[in-house]
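FAQ

Q: What does a record look like?
A: Structure on top, sequence underneath. For example:
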C-alpha cells in the first residue's frame, strides 16, 4: 500500500486528540487577513476567523488578475492534520479556472483553536467561514457556494450543505467520503481497520449501540432529504478505506429523493486520488494519473453547468 494511503488512514481513523478549546477573549468580529506569497499565478490569504467561541484558520485563493467577484467554492480537506501541500495545489488548480476558493483549517489544525471532533464542530467551522466569505468583495455572493470535499472533508461538505439555506447551495462535490457511517463501521470491523486510539474511542466508543448520538450526527445519508442542489460523486474502485459501496449508497439515496446526481467510478483509483495522485511521483500508476485528470475535467464540467 502506498505511503499516502497509510497516511490518510492513520489521520482519518487513528488520529490523536489535539488539545481543547482555548479562551475566546477578544475574538475578532471580522476575519484577520494576512497576505501570503502568490503560488502559480494565484493570490493567497491566510484567514483567522471566529467559529462559535473559537478562532480558526483557513486559506483563500483567487486568480492574480482578479478584477471582479468570482463564484465561491469551499474545498474541505481530507484527514485531520490541516491543509496538505497537495490540497493547496488543488485549490490553486480551481482558482486558476476562475473561482474564489476557501480551504478551512478546521478546529485543532494549523493553529486553529479547539480540538478535532471529526465531522462535528468542523461543520460549524465551514458554515462560519461561509458567513464571512459571502460578504467578501471577491465573492459573487448572489451565486451562493459550491461545497467540495475529499474523504473527511466530503462528509463535512455533505453535512454542511444540508444546514445552509438551499437557495445558497449551488452544488456539492463529494469525493470518496463516508455516507453511511453504520455500514462503514461494519466494514472497518470486518476488515480489521477499526482504531483503538483516543479520538476513535472518544468519538465512536464500541459502536452505534454504545454511542447512538455520535453515529447519528455523522450519518451522511440523513442529510440527503435536506439538499436540493446538483451533486457530483467521485469514487475510486480500488479504495479500501471508504469502499465504492459508500458512494453507491449516497448515489442511490439522492436518486430516490429525486435529486440531480452523477456518480463517477474510476477503476484504477485508490483512496485520495483526486488530491494526491496528480502530485505524487511514487506509488501512483499511469492509469490512476490519467483517470484522476478525467475526474478533474468532470469537476470542471460540473462547475460550469451550475446555474
Amino acid at each position: 500500500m502506498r505511503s499516502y494511503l497509510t497516511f490518510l488512514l492513520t489521520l482519518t481513523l487513528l488520529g490523536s486528540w489535539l488539545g481543547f478549546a482555548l479562551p475566546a477573549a477578544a475574538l475578532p468580529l471580522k476575519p484577520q487577513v494576512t497576505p501570503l506569497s502568490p503560488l502559480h499565478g494565484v493570490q493567497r490569504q491566510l484567514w483567522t476567523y471566529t467559529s462559535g467561541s473559537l478562532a480558526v484558520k483557513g486559506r483563500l485563493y483567487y486568480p492574480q488578475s482578479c478584477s471582479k467577484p468570482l463564484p465561491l467554492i469551499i474545498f474541505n480537506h481530507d484527514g485531520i492534520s490541516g491543509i496538505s501541500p497537495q490540497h493547496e495545489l488543488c485549490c490553486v488548480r480551481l482558482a486558476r479556472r476562475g473561482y474564489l476558493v476557501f480551504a478551512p483549517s478546521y478546529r485543532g489544525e494549523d493553529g486553529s483553536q479547539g480540538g478535532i471532533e471529526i465531522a462535528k464542530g468542523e461543520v460549524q467551522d465551514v458554515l462560519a467561514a461561509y458567513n464571512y466569505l459571502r460578504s467578501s468583495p471577491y465573492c459573487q455572493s448572489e451565486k451562493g457556494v459550491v461545497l467540495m470535499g475529499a474523504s473527511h472533508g466530503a462528509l463535512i461538505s455533505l453535512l454542511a450543505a444540508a444546514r445552509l439555506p438551499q437557495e445558497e447551495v449551488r452544488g456539492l462535490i463529494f469525493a470518496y467520503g463516508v455516507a453511511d457511517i453504520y455500514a462503514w463501521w461494519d466494514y472497518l470491523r470486518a476488515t480489521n481497520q477499526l482504531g483503538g486510539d483516543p479520538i476513535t474511542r472518544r468519538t465512536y466508543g464500541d459502536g452505534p449501540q454504545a454511542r447512538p448520538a455520535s453515529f447519528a450526527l455523522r450519518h451522511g445519508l440523513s442529510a440527503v432529504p435536506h439538499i436540493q442542489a446538483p451533486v457530483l460523486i467521485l469514487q475510486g474502485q480500488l479504495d479500501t478505506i471508504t469502499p465504492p459501496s459508500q458512494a453507491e449508497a449516497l448515489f442511490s439515496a439522492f436518486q430516490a429523493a429525486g435529486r440531480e446526481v452523477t456518480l463517477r467510478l474510476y477503476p484504477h483509483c485508490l483512496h485520495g486520488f483526486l488530491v494526491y495522485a496528480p502530485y505524487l511521483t511514487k506509488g501512483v500508476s499511469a492509469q490512476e494519473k490519467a483517470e484522476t485528470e478525467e475526474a478533474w475535467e468532470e469537476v470542471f464540467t460540473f462547475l460550469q453547468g451550475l446555474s
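Q: Is there anything notable about this one?
A: The radius of gyration is 18 Å.
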